[in-house]
Write a structure and sequence with these properties.
With about 130 residues, the chain is mainly beta. The protein has a single domain, classed as Beta Barrel (OB fold (Dihydrolipoamide Acetyltransferase, E2P)). It is built from one helix and six strands, in the order ββββαββ. It has a five-stranded mixed β-barrel with strand order 1-3-4-6-5. The longest helix is centred in the middle third of the chain and has 10 residues.
Length: about 130
């Protein structure tokens, strides 16, 4: 039986994306995203909880994310979870779970450039319909 490893997140980008290249020349970009949820507790008090996720993108997606995504922007991230482990300088085993993204959508509009002042909207004149003879 096949398994499923899929993550979908909507949140605010918490760090500017950092792009680098592997020894093989593959682009890789990583950033953090904060996803919050709110609910009302049994006492009627509104509560909020925020989870932070590390996101990694590769190749063309990595280049696009690095170019257009910035801290504070809203984004949709879809991908899979992957846990890495390594030994720290103190000899302790370290673990990090990351989202390996295959889709990143930018949910808010980019900063609009200043547009020249537009001429006022002119209503079109009403044209009478010709009556058939």
């Amino acid at each position: 039986m096949a398994g499923l490893n899929k993550v979908m997140l909507i949140g605010n980008v918490g760090t500017d994306p950092e792009m680098r290249y592997t020894a093989n020349g593959n682009a890789v970009t990583s950033f953090r995203i904060a996803c919050s949820r709110t609910w009302t507790g049994p006492d009627g008090e509104r509560k909020e909880e925020t989870e932070w996720f590390s996101v990694v993108t590769w190749d063309k997606l990595a280049e696009t994310v690095s170019q257009f995504l910035q801290k504070g922007r809203r984004a949709y991230v879809e991908g899979r979870l992957k846990t890495r482990s390594w030994e720290g300088p103190d000899g302790q085993r370290r673990f990090r779970t990351e989202v390996i993204a295959n889709t990143v959508l930018f949910l808010d509009r980019a900063q609009a450039t200043h547009l020249p002042e537009e001429a006022p909207l002119v209503e079109p004149e009403e044209v009478p319909l010709e009556q058939p003879e």
